[in-house]
Design a protein that fits this description.
With 204 residues, the chain is of the alpha+beta class. 29% of the residues lie in helices and 20% in strands.
Length: 204
């Protein structure tokens, strides 16, 4: 799974990610990362066999300039890790609920490196028994997504011909369809997109 993350694309191929891996059998590292989580995340993440901390290196290697794309690239690497985990029958749950400063101190992150997210990795829970009520409600709630579609249009460039005609060349367009809605003009039998699911909470 970490190998899948390693092959993620990144700006200048800088690969600005690192992962702290805390396995349950390494009690000191596991407890240190677990202790950085918010109490609501500790309540269920304590059952995970593996916790990870994604880290962004904030400056480029080749010129030491700030890399404002670092967090985007760490996200790409984490997404590939999650896809590989899913392919292996495992569940991944990313968490923003953790103490960033405490995590950086606990693992001695050098200057120019910042924690991005905590991650729980393990098998999907068979049931939600024993979890706090608010966690159960969130897990069982609908996996909502923004309705409708997003369109972005804008001028791309004004070429000589377009300028003479007083027209602007057509700009780029981004269309995002929600799951289940077929593309415009598609046959009725076109398969709908798969329904999204709520992230599962791993359990050893």
């Amino acid at each position: 799974m970490l190998e899948a993350a390693r092959w993620a694309p990144s700006c200048f191929n800088d690969q600005p990610w690192a992962f702290v891996v805390a396995r349950r059998e390494d009690a000191a590292t596991f407890d240190a990362l677990l202790g950085c989580l918010t109490p609501s995340n500790q309540a269920w993440a304590a059952d995970a066999p593996v916790l990870l901390l994604s880290v962004a290196r904030t400056r480029f290697r080749h010129n030491d300039k700030p890399n404002r794309h670092a967090w985007h690239d760490v996200g790409l690497a984490t997404a590939q890790l999650a896809l590989e985990a899913q392919a292996r029958g495992l569940a991944v749950h990313m968490m923003a609920g953790f103490d960033v400063a405490a995590a950086a101190q606990a693992f001695g992150l050098p200057d120019g490196h910042e924690p991005v997210a905590a991650i729980a990795l393990g098998h999907q829970r068979a049931d939600l028994a024993g979890l706090p009520a608010d966690v159960v409600a969130r897990e069982q709630g609908p996996a909502a997504r923004a309705p409708g579609r997003l369109r972005l249009r804008g001028p791309l460039r004004r070429g000589p011909r377009a300028a003479r005609r007083g027209a602007v060349a057509a700009g780029p367009r981004l269309l995002v369809r929600p799951p289940g809605r077929p593309r415009r003009g598609a046959p009725a039998k076109e398969a709908a997109g798969s329904a999204s699911t709520q992230p599962s909470m791993p359990k050893s």
